[in-house]
Design goal:
With 311 residues, the protein is an alpha/beta fold. The chain starts with a helix and ends with a strand. Bound molecules: N,N,N-trimethyl-histidine (AVJ).
Length: 311
């Protein structure tokens, strides 16, 4: 579980603000992480299919760019599914360091990964990818190249300025000639994006609404999830998909001892998912100190995987 005081503070600050918002990182409790795994299996959720296609087709090219003896660091690894393609292709990787905010899942998945790659030292670091983390000393070998693997367009959750700061931090983490292999969703037909974030089966709605259950459980809140609905749409001006929980009626909800008021149609903004064209993203990474080595796209050109090296 989350360190409770920080969690409580952040949630209450977000709910007491004039425009209510909760960080998307709080969507990933154990249930939320499972629901996100279901989202990744949806027909409508094109990012996973497209990125998987790219990794399946080009992992060996990526491995060539990276070279032998890499320390692979994956912030926000979740079920560590995608890195398997890379680990199979890499030449004598030194170690794998997986990090995730959901500790239960991390520990389970890291040990599964170790079973599949018995010669690979696997390290599990429970951490939020937006916070400072340290790489265990045993995972590093002198002269080994550090490569951060950040698939899934997770970076899209950050505001552009935060994404920039995060990239700079990664440049420091990997050091000179270190690498960054990163998957980023591109801009496309809004209809396709709207469908991906508001699927007809309602899995994404469940993922979003699960946040209310979590607040009820962990912060003794009194949300009635039937009085809220899931909304997700691409905002052309802000160049991001937004996800909200919308209040169906005027209502008050208690969170800890705070009373939170909702007007009808008032929302809690629970996630932003920024989309970048290859040009925009390469430029941003360059400003953070990364030089583009190569990029790969899927056959439908919905998604992009980039390999950068620190200048
Ligand atoms: C995990 C942040 C990349 O923004 O596409 C999926 C999360 N939210 N469906 C995304 C998400 C709703 C996902 N990321």
């Amino acid at each position: 579980m989350m360190q409770n005081t920080g969690f409580e503070k952040e949630i209450l600050n977000g709910l007491l603000a004039s425009r209510k918002a909760i960080s998307p990182k709080f969507l990933y409790d154990e249930k939320g992480s499972e629901l996100f795994e279901s989202i990744m299996k949806l027909e409508e959720y094109y990012p996973t299919q497209a990125e998987t296609e790219i990794l399946e087709n080009y992992a060996s090219e990526m491995a060539e760019w990276i070279g032998p003896h890499a320390v692979v660091i994956e912030p926000g690894c979740g079920n560590c599914m995608k890195v398997r393609h890379l680990l199979k292709a890499l030449i004598e990787p030194v170690s794998y360091v997986g990090m995730d905010i959901s500790k239960e899942i991390l520990v389970r998945e890291a040990s599964r990964l170790h079973d599949e790659f018995p010669h690979l030292p696997v390290f599990a670091v429970p951490a939020d990818y937006t916070e400072n983390f340290s790489i265990p000393g045993e995972a590093i070998r002198s002269g080994a190249k550090k490569v951060v693997f950040f698939p899934g367009s997770t970076i899209g959750n950050l505001q552009p300025a935060e994404a920039m700061a995060w990239l700079k931090k990664m440049a420091d983490t990997v050091g000179k000639r270190g690498g960054l292999l990163i998957g980023v969703d591109t801009k496309k037909d809004p209809l396709l994006m709207n469908l991906a974030y508001d699927d007809p089966q309602g899995v994404t709605a469940e993922f979003n609404l699960n946040l209310l259950d979590r607040l009820n459980r962990e912060l003794q809140a009194s949300f009635d999830r039937r009085q809220f609905y899931h909304s997700a749409f691409y905002d052309e001006d802000k160049e991001r998909v937004e996800m909200h929980l919308v209040s169906k009626i005027p209502q008050t909800v208690k969170v800890k001892d705070q009373v939170i008021q909702f007007e009808k149609d008032e929302t809690i903004h629970t996630e932003s998912s920024y989309k970048y064209s290859p040009k925009e993203f390469s430029l941003m990474a360059r400003r953070a100190g990364f030089d583009l080595k190569n990029l790969w796209q899927d056959s439908r050109r919905l998604f992009c995987v980039y390999y950068f090296e620190r200048i």
